[in-house]
Every structure is written in structure tokens, then in C-alpha cells.
Amino acid sequence: MNVGLPDVLVQLRSRGRQATIPSVYPPIIHYATRRGQSGKDHPVTAISRRTLIATALVTPAIARRAFSQAKVIKIGAPLPLTGALAPEGLKQRRGYEIWADAVKSADGIKVGNDRVKVELAYADYESNTPRAAQAVERMITQGGVSAVFGPYGSGAVKASSTVTERHKVPMLAPTASAREVYDQGHKFLFGTLAPNDAVTVPLARFMLAAVPNLKRMAILSRNDLFPLALGQQMEQAAKQSNIEVASFQRYPIGAMDHASALTEMAATKPDWVFVTGYTNDLILVRRQMHELKFTARVITMLTGPSYKEFIDALGPLAERVSSVSWWEPVLPYRGVGPFATSEDYAKAFTARYNVVPDYGEASSTACAVVLQTAAEKAQSIEPIALRDALAGLEVLTFYGPIKFGPSGQIESQKCPIFQLQGGKRVIVAPADIRQGDLQIIS
Amino acid sequence: MIAQVLLNGLLLGGLYACIAAGFSLLWGVMNVINLLHGTLVVLGGYLAWMAFYFFGVHPLVALPAVALLVGLFGASLQAGVLGRVVGAPVLVTLVITFGLDLITRNGLLLSFGADFRTIRPSWTLGTAEVGGLKIPLDRTIAASAALAMTLALYLLLRRSWLGRAIIAVRMDRDAAALMGVRVRHAFTAAFALSAALAGAAGALLGLVFPISPLQSDGYLGTAFTVCVLGGLGSVVGAVVGGVVLGLVESIAGFALGAENASIVSFVLLILLLAVRPEGLLGRRGYA
Predict the structure, then answer these.
(1) CATH number for the domain including A208?
(2) What is the DSSP string of chain B?
(3) Are A98 and A173 in the same domain?
(4) What is the number of CB-based contacts under 8 A between chain A and chain B?
(5) B254–A315: do the CB atoms touch at under 8 Å?
(6) Nearest CB to B116; choose among A250, A257, A309
(7) Same structural domain, A189 and A208
(8) CB-CB under 8 Å, B8 with A257
(9) B114 vs A87: CB contact, 8 Å cut-off?
(10) Which pLDDT band, with edges at 50, 70 and 90, does A17 fall under?
């Protein structure tokens, strides 16, 4: 008969031969006691000497394992590794991995007097938002994670943050910037991208100052939570700056053609064209603008130009397209964590992945650094202690100063405005980190 | 401006027709709803991209080779997998092509990753301007080539022995066999033709759209819509369906906003199904 360890312990009790049970074994003690008291145990055969010896040998090993398990912080990372958002999901994973490797080489993170190892638990939610929420639920209820890194984008974070809130597990969202994500009154949600109006208001003011006679603009937004919110914020910011919004078009998710929207926009003869969407959308829009000979003095696209794929795919057509980023490698920050400065981070990232990191990757790493700092500060890896530490955190990192507002969204971030010049991102504002002037397209 | 909107719609419709022609052929002839079709289009796009990236061959030049390769792939699938369930209920082939689609699509994901690839030939024809009308020449050539291929399919089905054999099998498999048509070969030829058209469409679309394994659903959805709109069993139906869909989306997008274009086209589709369920030019048989 195959007798398991809990059965052995039950047998020991039932025969009045009380063994010394290791103190690191509470779950099994509980299990054995419960089964013993219930009276529903299987019939027990006489315990053999061999079984006792095996038990004695196995117990320290299990004890060691149990002990070592206590020294690991498990962090859930639901990602869209397949499906429409896979490129973005893979980038986000790179941001986590470079941090996890740095922490591993430092023998874990310091929590109180212990070194705690990090274990990232990935789940592919196939770019399907409901599945992201399901993955988060599984990570918490079955995976026992102490914290969760948010899925990609505002929509998925908004959906899955209700799960982390219900289970009181902190979620750190690296790629959700829409205010609508953070206005739900959640206490366990934190985000490292500044809200959209922190992008659009300075952008409108800058363009008004940098482009002579800027009077009229046209907006084209993907009809999706983040890009649409960004477009609407841009519309408000433009109106505040007395820029007329002559056209505001929305295109559906998965649109294969933008010719009709662009034709309508071109008819308004805008000085400034502002387009929001994801990389694939923006590549197509820029190509079709060229095909239709539709141009403007300024073309701003969010968020594609931050990515190398955008520049590679468009070549000369990417030239002079402007954008806003939440982070750039040239930012002059020095702070805590495995990467002291923005430059150090960019170098380490480039050495590993052979590509300059973009803001999404940096924000993902920043989330991890912030969680590490919170664990060190709280001297605990318990979810509620981590949440409390995150809420009161005020820290300088390679990503910039990080302080979360009452809604959980970062409130300390300044977003650089850049333009693609010679195939590279050149910062044109703010003035203290400016690398060049904005070049007018036509 | 209205002329520009109509032109945009026509060019888009030409590409839609090309996506749908192969799908319609297979559905109409073999009664196989090929859920792999969108992925075959993407496969054609990747082959064209590889020809361009590794050998510097323009997609229009690579088009015959791409069509041949994807056609051979389709023929092997038919001979090796789908041929075993000829005559089975449509649900069986639906499930099989769904499985084949999953395998092929994930194979593309593993091979090429999920990033977008674009074909940027060093020479492009640019945009011609005629009386204020802007004509994107690359897109025009792609749409024209698409329509030419659809016409070639029409002629093949009408004039060649192979085409008549395929149509005979569709109309009455047993009678066709009695008349000396090798039914199994006719099925393989039809699948190969359909796949070749999908591959060619992929090469043409690669000139216009970024290529990614994730686009296959969009192409498949377009093929479905065009076929139902134009009517099964007619090459001309695929062309008409494609052009109508392109025009409706273009006009609705301009008049009501891009986000409402799909709503209008699907409302139109539902209305058509209610009034004329066989589609605009649907008929039994083919061509």
C-alpha cells in the first residue's frame, strides 16, 4: 500500500507513538489532525521501519523547501504574448526580465534581515481583456502571488484591477495612463504612467509656441479606451490653447483602411494632425496620408514613434513625426534600484536586447523597482504591507521621481516631447533636456 | 471630394475582392468554409516580404512564385488532410480548417514573431494627381492586379477543362465521376487555386498594409462578408461584393465617421440577407 507522509503522521498518533513533528510543518500537522479527528481515514496498515526511516530522511528536505519557499516573492505578470497586442506584451516582459535578472545577480532583494528571491509568474491572456482578469484571478487564488504587474493598456488594467482590489493584492500598472482607470476608488492599484492630460496640455502649449500661426488641427483616434481618451484630452487641451479642432475622427479597432477619414480631415486643411493608436494603426495612417498627399505643418502620433518598429517600418515617412514619451534614455535621473541612472538602464537594456528601451519597457522596469523599494521599506512581502508602503512611497529612480497620488496614478512625472529626426528621437521639450528644435514638415 | 471618396472605395473594394475570390471558390465549389483562408493571405504576405527582404525582389515580381508556393501548400493540405473527409458534413471541414488555421498561424507567430513587417520598395510609383483627384498608384496597381487575377479565375472556370471539371464536381459529384472527372483531383485543384489566390492577395496587400500573423482574422472576416454580400457560386459576385463593401465603407466612413463605417456595411448585409439571402449575384454552381 502506498502510504503518504500525512498518513504516516496519522498512524504515529493513532498508535500513541508521538513523534517529534518539525515546527516548519504546520500545514501537514493540521492536515493530519483534521483527518485523524474526522474518522474518515483509510484503513491503516502497520507502519514499517523502512517508512519511518524514509520519513526521517524526507522531512528535513521538505523543511528546507518550506523554509526556502518563505524567501521567495511571487509576482504575477499577465501579458498579451499572443494576439493583436503581442508586440507590446513582449516589450513589457523585457522590462520585467531585465529587472529580475539584475535582482537575481544581487542574490535577491533585501527585506528586513533576509534576502528574498523573485519569481515572476507569467500568463498569456492572448490580447483578450476578459482573459486578463481571469489570469489575475488564477494568479492570486492558485498562484499565491504577493503582487501583480498590470496587463497591457488602460482597458485591461481597468478590468483586472477589480480582481486585485477584491483580493487586496497590489497591482502595479506600467502601461495604463487613462484617468478612467484610476477613478474607481481602488486602493490597491498604482500606475507609473502620468495621466493623459499631463501629456496633452504641455504638448498643446509647446506647439502653440513653437509653430507660428498654428490655428487649426485635426484629430484621428482609435476607438479604444486609451487612444480615445488621449484624443479627447487633446481636443480639450487644444481648445484651452485656442486651437480650433476642425475635425475629430474615430476609427474602429482593427481598421484596415483610413482613406475616408483622412480625406475628410484633409478637407479641413489643418496645421496640425494628431493621431492616436497603436503601432500598426499609425504605420498604416502615415502611409495612407502619404498616398493621399495629405500633410500638415506638424504631425503628432501617439504612441508609435516611441517604438523602433515604427521607424523601421516607415523609413523616410517617419521623419519629423513628433510624439510624447513618458520616459527617454537621456533623462537626467539618478536614484535607487539596480539601475542607478536612466543612462545605466538604457545601456544595460541595449546590451541585453540590442535595442534602445522605450517608455513602455522603462515603465515596466520602474514598476518592478518600485515594488522592490516598497518591499524593502515595508520589510515584508505581504500584499497589504506592500500596498501601504507603495501608497506612501516617494522615491527617485532611473525612471524619474515616483510618488503616487490619492488615485494611485503617478503624479510626479514630466513627459518629454520629441520628434523623429534622422531616424532618431530628438527631445524638443521641456527646455532643460532639449536636444534640438522642432522642425516644421511643410 | 466625393470623387476621391468613391475612388478610395473602389481601390479598397478591389483588394477586398481579391481576398474573397479564393474563399468564394472553395466555399462555392467544395462546400468547404475554409477558416484557414485569412492565414493563407498572411502567409502570402510573409513570402512576399521574405522575397523582398532577402533577395530584393519587388512583391509584384514575386507574386507568381508566392501564389505557386501557397497554392502547393494548399494542395498538400487538401491531398493530405481535407481529402480524407470529402463529402463529410460542413461542420467537419469547419473544425479541420479551424485546427489547421491554429497550427499555421502559430507557426507564423513562432517563425516571424508578432511584430509588424512592412515592404518598402526603393522604387514606388507614388501618387498621381488628375484634376484634384489623388490616385495612389501602388494601391491602384494592387487593386488592378487583384481584379485581373479574379478575371483570370473566371476565364479559367469558364473556358478550361479544369474549370469545367471543378464546376461539374460542384454540381453533381457522382455524375462528374461517371463522365471521367477525377473528383479527388478536382478538389485538390480547387483548393490549390483558392490558396494560390489567397497567397497572391497577401503579396498585393503587403504593398499596402503592414504584415502580421494577427491580421488573419480581419482578412477572414472580410472574405466572409464579401462572399455573403456578393453571393456564393459566382466569381463576378466576389468582385461585386468586394467593390460594394469598399464603396459602402468609404462613403459611410466619410459621411458618418470612420467608426460607423462597419456598422453601416453590416446593417446593409443584414438587410440584404433578409431580402435576397443568396446575395447580389449568388447562384448554384460556379462562374
Answers:
(1) 3.40.50.2300
(2) -HHHHHHHHHHHHHHHHHHHHHHHHHHHHH----TTHHHHHHHHHHHHHHHHHHH---HHHHHHHHHHHHHHHHHHHHHHTGGGGTTS-HHHHHHHHHHHHHHHHHHHHHHH-SS-B----S----EEEETTEEEEHHHHHHHHHHHHHHHHHHHHHHHSHHHHHHHHHHH-HHHHHHTT--HHHHHHHHHHHHHHHHHHHHHHHHTTS-B-GGGHHHHHHHHHHHHHHH-TT-HHHHHHHHHHHHHHHHHHHHHH-HHHHHHHHHHHHHHHHHH-TT-SS--SS--
(3) yes
(4) 104
(5) no
(6) A309
(7) no
(8) yes
(9) yes
(10) very low
Cell numbers found for residue A383:
500584499
Within 8 A by CB and 6+ apart from A320, the residues are A299, A419, A420, A421, A439, A440, A441
* A427 and A279 both lie in a single domain: yes
Q: Of A252, A256, A279, which has the smallest distance from its Cβ to B116's Cβ?
A: A279
- Put simply, the answer to whether A250 touches B253 (Cβ < 8 Å) is no
Which among A260, A293, A312 has the least Cβ separation from residue B253? A260
pLDDT in tens, B154-169: 888 888 888 888 888 8
The Cα A120–Cα A93 span in angstroms is 10
| A222 and A290 fall within a common domain | yes
Q: Note whether residue A409 is domain-resident.
A: no
If asked whether residues A175 and A222 sit together in one domain, one would say no
Rounded to an integer, the average pLDDT of A298-302 is 94
Q: Looking at the structure, do residues A317 and A422 belong to the same domain, yes or no?
A: yes
Q: Which residues of B touch A280 (CB under 8 A)?
A: 116, 210, 212
Question: A292, B134: Cβ pair inside 8 Å?
Answer: yes
ipTM associated with this complex: 0.73
CB contact under 8 A, A86 and B214: yes
pLDDT at A276: 94
Question: Nearest residue of B to residue A291 by CA position?
Answer: B136
CB-closest option in A250, A284, A314 to B259: A250
Write out pLDDT tens, residues B3-19: 888 888 888 888 888 88
Distance of residue B253 Cα from the nearest chain A Cα, in angstroms:
6
